[in-house]
Amino acid sequence: MATIAQIAAELGLSKSTVSRALRGIPSISQETVALVREAASRLDYVPSVAAAGLSTGRNHAVGVVVPSLDRWFYSSVVSGIDRTLAALGYDVVLFDLDHSHDGGKRPFARSLLRRRVDAVIVIATVFTPDEFAELALLDIPMIAVGPPAVGLRTIGVDDGAIMAAATNHLIDLGHRSLGLVGGYDSQSLTVYSASEREHAFTRSALRSGVVVDPTWMLSGAYQSGVAQQVVAQLYASSSWPTGLVCASDEMAIGALYALSRAGLQVPHDVSVIGIDGHIYAEAYDLTTCTQDVQEQGSRAARQIVAEIEGAPAPENFEPAGFELVVRGTTAPPPQVR
Amino acid sequence: MATIAQIAAELGLSKSTVSRALRGIPSISQETVALVREAASRLDYVPSVAAAGLSTGRNHAVGVVVPSLDRWFYSSVVSGIDRTLAALGYDVVLFDLDHSHDGGKRPFARSLLRRRVDAVIVIATVFTPDEFAELALLDIPMIAVGPPAVGLRTIGVDDGAIMAAATNHLIDLGHRSLGLVGGYDSQSLTVYSASEREHAFTRSALRSGVVVDPTWMLSGAYQSGVAQQVVAQLYASSSWPTGLVCASDEMAIGALYALSRAGLQVPHDVSVIGIDGHIYAEAYDLTTCTQDVQEQGSRAARQIVAEIEGAPAPENFEPAGFELVVRGTTAPPPQVR
DNA sequence: GTGAAAGCGCTAACAG
DNA sequence: CTGTTAGCGCTTTCAC
Fold first, then answer.
1. Mean pLDDT on A270-275
2. What integer pLDDT is reported at residue B279 of this predicted model?
3. Superfamily for B1-46?
4. Pick among A58, A69, A112, A118 to test the B interface (most B CBs inside 10 A)
5. Which has the higher per-residue pLDDT, B209 or A335?
6. Quick one: which of A173, A242, A270, B119 has the most CB atoms within 10 Å?
């Protein structure tokens, strides 16, 4: 595996010329470039980011912090980030907090970032003040994607607005009794988003005079399996709502299954609406409020690269868009028909 | 953000001493170490992997290549890898092939690896000969996790054995008519695994004299939503099997939903078994053959770090274990009861 | 125990 | 258009 120096020696050129030729800097003659390229591939030259980085101070890498990868939302954001970063010539260094959550130090502690990355994109992560201080020390651009992060500029949907849209859809159809499958979970890092969505649900319901029975406010911890269980329990009782608003599509899919097993017809007996626009939503014919999660990751990636390369850093970002997609799981409630 | 040189100057020591102290090399006196540590944190010292790497040739980073992140299996492997690598002081550089699949060059082309990583872990990816040659050029350890990869040593379950175990469970319960929800998909990169599982299904069935109707061999493309649709279609027809073997739990969950909507009772009318041990399997009370996917990633990580640090590279690995977990979705078929 | 010096592979002025 | 000369921040002989 050759170095630039060896190519230079081989060709009787200087290292700088070779370096320039390799990087396609205009001031080099066509022939030289061709010569260098040829020698490079013949000698199996592989550039070293470390060396380049040492001298330029640019690593061409971005750190991506996620609470875990086993949630569709997070991995979709990462996909979007990776796709865009790759196109821009940047690598992604992944920091999965999943394990480090309990006990040990989390991996974005100063010692672990070690200036490997030029910027950091944070997904649904709440920092302790210490962690925040250590990150700030690096003095590199940081952006959050998804739920708003304290102290960071965030790219994401307005959680209140998206939940209101979902809830209002059922209200507009005539539902007067609504249940919520929320994402709140004491373990969860996405607390903010979950409680924001919960509040928006209650607000919308109250505003329309829909009475919300506290026993109809469930928590599915943003997990399909958990949602399935709590919904099964609710619909095994004597009174239940005709409309079920789920704070995520994964939970909505769990709910659909529970209802089906309980012998209830969707949407004849119960309407179900989700939030997020999960890849499976269409196959389950699920009505939902879609947001383009990959695109949000992509947007964060583009923005952060711009900032790495000197663009100004805006104070905050436009909230991401969302759209009500009406499918087959919502309809007017039984009484109204 | 200070450098080692600044700490040295501040303390009137040499760079070497500071470097040694920081790395905890024994030959340094207690007091010096304490002094250096103190100065380092006071001056906000953050080490530079690039500089260290340049001089040692070690990056303390491992590249992880995945076909995509939106599949539970892949992201679980990545989680396992990340967890272990983090504990060993290595970073993971992610290469998500998802986007680069069609058209563009895939990111592990030589130019993109640029010696950033000390080793590569590959998940369910088939290389072209060119790609393989470029990777070989880097001359660093490589291991595959999951489905066997041509030319690479692989850590993973025996796909034939796990499928045989699942199929035989239904046969042992007395089922004489079996259907398969396979993962085969012309787009997919996991072709090998899918067809291996499909063959094992057929073998087990034939061996026990169970007739397999070709119209009962479905493909769910390893996706819950797709599986749900194809199963719904099958059970809307006049004849269907009493046992459904699904090549993944995600597809099994889709199947459960479809059956429920078709008005069929599981396991009274139809038994369903999955494979993999998805996080949701328990909540859905799904019988399955579990494999510890995270542990496989973890094992790959431990192994590759050992190899980076000079351990010998075994020719091949013991297949990973799996276990039949009987839950509520399987029972003897109607006729037998 | 600690220091001096050389070098890892590349880029970046500054010349010419 | 190309070469010279310094580094980038760290580790590593080899001395003392």
1. 97
2. 86
3. lambda repressor-like DNA-binding domains (1.10.260.40)
4. A69
5. B209
6. A270
pTM: 0.93
Confirm if B178 and B210 have CB atoms less than 8 A apart.
yes
Architecture of domain A159-292+323-336: 3-Layer(aba) Sandwich (3.40)
Q: Give the Cα separation of B279 and B71 in Å (integer).
A: 12
Contact A295, A320 (CB under 8 A): yes
Confidence of residue A111 (pLDDT cuts 50, 70, 90): low
Distance separating alpha carbons of residues A291 and A319, to the nearest angstrom = 11
Task: Give the model's pLDDT for residue A99.
Answer: 64
pLDDT per position as a tens digit, B36-46 = 999 999 999 99
Q: Shortest CB distance from A116 goes to which of B49, B114, B229?
A: B49
Structural domain spans, chain A:
1-46, 159-292+323-336
pLDDT digits 0-9 by tens, B277-312: 998 898 889 999 999 999 999 999 999 999 999 999
Assess contact for A304 and A62: CB atoms under 8 A. yes
CB contact under 8 A, A54 and B51: yes
Q: Which residue is nearest to nucleotide D13 (CA to C1')?
A: B16
Q: Using DSSP, state whether B138 is helix, strand or coil.
A: helix
Per DSSP, B233 falls in state: H
Chain A residues inside the 8 Å CB shell of B40: none
pLDDT < 70: residue spans in chain B: 99-112, 186-191, 336-337
The neighbour count for residue B302, using CB atoms within 10 Å, is 15
Element holding B287 (H helix, E strand): strand B287-291
Please give the single-letter amino acid code of residue A199.
Answer: H
Cβ contacts below 8 Å, chain A against chain B, sum to 185
Give the A window 261-290 contacts with B, CB below 8 Å: 261, 279-280, 282-284
What's the length of chain A? 337
